[in-house]
Amino acid sequence: MTDEKLLKYFKNACTEGERQEVESWLQANDHNAQYYLDFVQARHPAAEPEYDKEKVKARLLDEVQYAMHSNTQSGTDFVRRIVDQNIQWLKAAAAILVILIGGMGGYVWFGGTLSDHSEIGYREFTVPAGKIDSLMLGDGTKVTLNAGTTLKYPEQFIGGSRKVYLVGEAYFDVAHNKAKPFKVQAGALTTTVLGTAFNVTAYREDQQVSVAVTEGKVRVADSGTQRDQPQELTLTPNQSLAYDKQTKRVAKQEGVVSDFISWKEGILIFNEEPLPETVRKLERWYDVNISIPSSGLAGCIIHGKHKGESLDNVLKTISFATGISYEFTEQGVAITGGRCQ
């Protein structure tokens, strides 16, 4: 394999035939894969020297282990998504991971060795729309999950940390273990604690991911982007943060965080939220489909607090406050028009 062809492959400038040739060569043996990593790193010495490659390896391995045990996303797609970094070495390692995951069924390559991680089993706990449920993990951590939430966690916490993966919203009351930090991966954010209580909201369809702390202290870090180093913030009681998925920016806030966890008590809160965001909450809370016409209603701002009310009563309140109209249909609820007051 020529260096010229490897360089074209790394720059994504090769033909389909050349790509297949290089990937077959990489998959042939560990020596070829190691050569490719060394080749790329030697030609890109400008990568930040303070960046801890071993930590990158550990994180990437952790993510890939999760992907291989996930029923919702292929390992290949997962790796391609998480390698949005400005570190050339990571690009090279990820390229090999993509090939090996796709071609070797559960083996992950690092540093010239193959390790079988198939013995690590994951369980998945899903709460459907319209429900709230709780779960006790093996370490004594209690997790309360909001409607439409999935938590994936290992059958046993092995190694130096306790890591789980969240899609949706959950409140964690973490069992203290100083020697083994508890980590929650929610999209691009990782929240790390020793023993505390906090809420994480990370629905796939929402624009923001939020973390709010009621007890103790947590450290929250994102995965970084091509333009930025990873951001890291520490939160203490009555502090929260919001992470914007589009801008990759984090905003930290001070103040009582009771609104973040009101759902645990069956209280539905709309805090100056746009109508589309309110609709998503209602769909999850009441397990119903709600359609919005393509009019100017997206700009309606909703505010209110509801406990133990029917969907019809909540919609009546919103209708009175905003001027919108709605009707129940065979498919669910249709917001039929009106205008924001």
From TrEMBL:
Residues 268-331 form the Protein FecR C-terminal domain. Residues 127-219 form the FecR protein domain. The chain crosses the membrane at residues 89-110. InterPro entries: FecR (IPR006860), FecR_C (IPR032508), Ferrdict_sens_TM (IPR012373). It comes from the Bacteria. It holds the Pfam family FecR_C. Gene3D superfamilies: 2.60.120.1440, 3.55.50.30. Keywords: Membrane, Transmembrane, Transmembrane helix. This is FecR domain-containing protein. It comes from Fodinibius salsisoli.
